[in-house]
Specification:
The complex is a heterodimer of chains A (284) and B (323).
Chain A (H helix, E strand, L loop, with lengths): L1 H11 L2 H18 L1 H4 L33 H37 L1 H16 L2 H12 L3 H9 L4 H14 L3 H8 L4 H40 L7 H10 L2 H4 L2 H29 L1 H5 L1
Chain B lengths: L2 H29 L4 H5 L6 H10 L6 H13 L13 H36 L4 H15 L2 H15 L18 H22 L1 H16 L2 H8 L4 H23 L1 H4 L4 H6 L5 H11 L2 H29 L1 H5 L1
The chains are: A mainly alpha (284), B mainly alpha (323).
Chain lengths: 284, 323
């Protein structure tokens, strides 16, 4: 409990961290209450046929899309999809990264050698092309997108955790747990994981932003799920109806600004967390 | 350990990596759901061609025979036949490599130069207004989808102001009198896509540059130089930049591998006929042989870029050679 309070005090000192947290909470609030806040429904057939691709007006504050749907409502509902994809994909990333990193660091020897070689190989494969290939082979659905992004970015987490576990396992309390005959599984679950949890969370926060960016790139390239209108998917349609050439700026700008702000909020929060929990930075 | 051994050691590792990438690439396209034969052989081609392809790649044989055939064909430079273009994948990709290399390298130069200049100013004035604004600018760039930035730049500079062409790498119908007028035409087309990638990638690069310059600024010899009353100019060029060379070139080289494959969305926005646009078209047309071949070539390029970076690094830093 005391450590949590201490953490809170440290976090409060970071202006960027607080700014990031406020932006993030604002978007969570907007997404959670999208159903209440959105002025219009956004079903494909629920648009206003008299207002196709109209610029912002008093009726539609952010204009309308090619189906006559209200852009403000699209943005509010889109946040839910984008945030969900980002968070779930990052959860997969964290699980793979933790498994690889902790196993390598704890067991050492051949296991470590093989796992870290595997990580090195994975690190060389260009990320976006890999995700494109996987997404187009698996099919462009909501869950496939989460899976594809999730299995891509775990190398960083694996490396950081391995290094941390390496130094952790030399600590006295791990030694003593081992000497009284605790099994490896028990030591990992009871002692190692709780100690590296802050690091895992910081890595996750830093990762969510990239996951959201990856999702928007995949959606832009036509590998998104049309039945789940994320911000990236909205941008995809904005480009494909020719917003660039017809100057439908109201269609193009809001989704991009939202993606940038949400990713930025995670970058700020992650930056602040990293300053507190990353032992390497703390020492500097 | 001399330079020759560094090259040999890294070279062997690179070849091993390429082999592993090939294995991954082969199985990726075969263990996925769907009929692999139907995936690799277009339904629209004639029965004759279909039979030729089936025998050539052994698609009617068990998996391990298919794999051996696949490797055999690759070694002969046969990366498969594209459905949509009805042409060998390798030719399609190689034709587009120069365009992608031009875009990637020119934009990378922009990223590097801007990052070093901004990084120097930020590190010099640590904690000052400029440092904070540059850092926030860097984080903002890091958080922005690059294709979106590209779209906005295209909309504003090319469509609204009409200052630049909107698609392609050169004007198709234009007859050029000499090589210079052709180069000017390409540069005119290149400018906005290059700036998009160049500025879009600045975030990560700037932050790393700033951090490594901060390390140098906090070294004792900089303090000494300041205490001796040397001019800012002398400190900057003689002490800081000279000592920053090694860490900076390391960063520049190591990130080279990462920029490969980063141009898919940018090429798509600008209809820039590079490997990235080819991949986008392959995805749209469900042209799996093309996708597989292009993906393999991209991964091999990434391995080679890393190899090159490590060799140059070994050359620059004697510690690598003699450790």
């Amino acid at each position: 409990m005391r450590s949590i309070r201490k953490f809170g005090e440290q976090y409060k000192e970071s202006k960027l961290g607080l700014l990031g947290l406020s932006i993030f909470l604002l978007f969570v609030f907007a997404s959670a209450f999208a159903g209440v806040l959105a002025p219009y429904p956004i079903g494909p057939t629920q648009g206003d046929r008299n207002y196709i691709l109209k610029p912002p007006s008093s009726k539609y504050l952010l204009g309308t899309d090619e189906l006559g749907r209200d852009m403000l409502s699209m943005i509010l509902y889109g946040g839910k999809v984008s945030l969900t994809i980002g968070i779930l994909a990052t959860l997969i990333t964290a699980i793979i990264g933790t498994l690889v990193g902790v196993t390598a660091g704890y067991f050492g020897g051949k296991t470590e050698e093989i796992l870290m070689r595997f990580t090195d190989v994975f690190l060389v494969i260009p990320g976006l092309p890999l995700m494109i290939v996987l997404a187009s082979l698996l099919g462009a659905t909501f869950w496939n997108m989460i899976l594809v992004i999730g299995i891509q970015g775990w190398t960083g987490t694996a490396r950081v955790l391995r290094a941390q576990v390496l130094s952790l396992k030399e600590k006295l309390f791990i030694e003593s747990a081992r000497s009284i005959g605790a099994s490896d599984t028990r030591i990992i679950i009871k002692h190692i994981i709780p100690n590296v949890l802050p690091l895992i969370v910081a890595q996750m926060v830093l990762r969510i932003g990239s996951s959201i960016l990856s999702a928007s790139s995949l959606s832009f390239l036509g590998l998104g799920d049309p039945t789940h209108m994320s911000w990236g998917m909205t941008l995809h349609y904005a480009f494909s109806v020719g917003s660039l050439f017809s100057n439908f700026y109201w269609y193009l700008i809001p989704p991009g600004v939202c993606i940038t702000l949400v990713v930025l909020s995670f970058t700020f929060i992650g930056y602040a967390l990293d300053q507190i929990v990353n032992p390497r930075i703390r020492e500097r | 350990m001399g330079m020759g051994r560094v090259v040999a050691k890294r070279g062997v590792y690179a070849i091993m990596l390429i082999f592993i990438m090939t294995i991954i690439n082969f199985f990726l396209f075969r263990i996925m759901p769907g009929d692999p034969v139907a995936m690799m052989v277009s339904p629209s081609i004639t029965a004759e061609v279909r039979q030729i392809l089936l025998t050539k790649f052994g698609l009617d044989k068990p998996m391990h025979i298919q794999f051996i055939k696949y490797i055999q064909q690759l070694l002969q430079g046969n990366f498969g036949l594209s459905f949509t273009y009805q042409r060998p994948v390798i030719n399609l990709v190689l034709e587009r490599v120069p365009n992608t290399v031009l875009l990637l390298l020119s934009s990378y130069v922009i990223t590097v130069i801007l990052s070093i200049i901004l990084g120097l100013i930020a590190a010099w004035r640590r904690g000052g207004k400029l440092d904070i604004s540059f850092t926030i600018f860097g984080l903002w760039m890091h958080s922005m989808p690059i294709f979106w930035l590209g779209g906005l730049l295209l909309l504003f500079f090319s469509v609204r102001l009409g200052l630049f062409p909107v698609i392609g790498v050169s004007t198709p119908w234009l007859k050029h009198e000499n090589i210079f007028s052709y180069m000017a035409d390409v540069a005119h087309h290149l400018f906005i896509p290059m700036m998009t990638l160049g500025i879009g990638n600045i975030g990560g690069m700037f932050l790393i540059t700033r951090n490594s310059l901060l390390d140098i600024f906090s070294e004792d010899y900089i303090m000494t130089a300041k205490a001796l009353g040397l001019s800012n100019r002398t400190i900057l060029f003689h002490n800081v930049l000279r000592n920053a060379m090694l860490p900076l070139s390391t960063i520049i080289l190591m990130r080279l591998g990462f920029i490969i494959g980063g141009a898919v969305t940018t090429e798509t926005v600008f209809t820039w006929p590079g490997v990235g646009l080819l991949i986008y078209n392959a995805v749209m047309q469900e042209d799996y042989p093309l996708l597989q071949g292009a993906f393999l070539i991209i991964t091999i390029s990434a391995v080679l870029a890393n190899f090159l970076a490590e060799v140059i690094y070994g050359y620059l830093d004697p510690r690598v050679r003699y450790e």
